[in-house]
Design a protein that fits this description.
single chain, 260 residues, alpha/beta, 14 helices, 5 strands, 56% helix
Length: 260
């Protein structure tokens, strides 16, 4: 499904494919569909072979070594390069400076400012925004109309902000969906920080929940400006991808309990 938030980016990719651009960087927030757009770029190039590579030095080097042994067109997607170590960018740089004629590289990132200038200058940058609420509703309907009809009015769906979160909610059990609304009891923060973190971070089955959805749910349930601010700060930490979710949740609970 092409989301409204992706239309401008797809048009830019269409123009880049028409000039056979070999290095493209797609920047956008977590869950906005960067991988989907990377696949679309391969389709626009009429390239059948597509490989997604994590931002690790060994994986990038291995993928680049493999494509030098073939002569058929291939698209390599380097996922979230901004979350990798500096060595990952340096490993990729030579292939951008001296591209092989059959290799197309699509880099994705959440924050282009965290990508070295040497990578940016050798790539065509395409920006994509977060999905709109209408995009998410249409996605839910197309993905599973029956399940969507059951969750669309529930708190957890109102807290969804990405296609990945939409997928997760559509796969939740009824008990897991109910869990987010039950957080109104935990919102009092009468427990110790460690106990509250455990309760918020786990379903009754002891399975770990989606921390970001839990934090947003608490903010919706409490309707307090200070809690909303705490939730926004913590979601930003999660978006950076460099802080573990349980650490972010601990920060949120501590600030909500003692910060005001």
């Amino acid at each position: 499904m092409l989301a409204n938030s992706q239309k401008v980016a797809l048009q830019e990719l269409h123009e880049l494919a028409s000039i056979n651009r070999q290095s493209v960087l797609i920047e956008g927030p977590r869950g906005c569909g960067k991988t989907y757009l990377s696949n679309q770029y391969a389709n626009l190039l009429n390239v059948q072979e597509f490989h997604s590579v994590p931002p690790k030095v060994g994986d990038i080097r291995e993928a680049l070594d493999k494509v030098t042994l073939i002569d058929t067109p291939v698209v390599l997607q380097i996922e979230n390069l901004d979350l990798g170590v500096a060595g990952a960018s340096y490993t990729l740089l030579k292939s951008l400076e001296e591209p092989l004629p059959h290799v197309y590289i699509v880099i994705t990132c959440r924050n282009a400012e965290a990508v070295p200038d040497t990578i940016i200058s050798r790539s065509a940058v395409v920006n994509v925004g977060p999905p709109t609420l209408d995009d998410l509703d249409r996605y839910g309907i197309e993905k599973d109309r029956l399940k969507y009809s059951n969750v669309s009015s529930r708190l957890v769906w109102q807290c969804v902000r990405s296609f990945g979160e939409a997928d997760e909610v559509l796969e939740m059990s009824p008990d897991e969906i109910n869990y987010y609304e039950s957080l109104s009891e935990t919102c009092r923060f009468s427990d110790s920080v460690s106990n509250a973190v455990w309760k918020i971070g786990h379903y009754d089955s002891n399975k770990e929940c989606n921390v970001e959805l839990a934090i947003r749910s608490i903010a919706e349930l409490m309707h307090k400006p200070f809690i909303t601010k705490c939730s926004i700060d913590c979601v930003r930490d999660l978006d950076k991808g460099r802080i573990a979710p349980h650490a972010v949740l601990s920060k949120f609970v501590f600030n909500a309990k003692y910060g005001e």
